[in-house]
Amino acid sequence: MGALVYNVLALIGNVLTLLLVVRAVLSFFPPAGRSSPLYDLDRLLYRVTEPVLQPVRRLMPDTGAIDFSPLVALVVIWLALLVLRNLLL
To answer: Which of 2, 14, 18, 22 pairs as cysteine with 88 (C-beta 3.0–4.6 A)?
Structure first.
């Protein structure tokens, strides 16, 4: 049972990791206008990842133009999965 729970949580963590990386990469490009095919993807990524990034941004000091919150969120996700693996398996 512990392996099943871990596998589901690991899948969620891995999908969230992928979405955070894609959002970070897309942030280097100009914002997509409504007529752009990337607009819907950009909006979806924002809606899914912003609830994770917002609390991290509140805890971090302002670093200017560079947003380190995706990096911090990725480290927290990876550490959480590591702890869960050790507890559940």
So the answer is: 2
Across the range 23-52, mean pLDDT stands at 88
pTM value? 0.88
- Report DSSP letters for 35-80, one per residue: TSTHHHHHHHHHHHHHHHHHHHHHHSPP-TT---HHHHHHHHHHHH
pLDDT tens digits, 33-47: 888 878 888 899 999
CA Rg value for the chain: 15
* Domain assignments of the chain as residue spans, ordered by start: 2-88
- To 10 degrees, what angle do helices 38-59 and 2-26 make? 110
Q: How many CB atoms lie within 10 A of CB 20?
A: 21
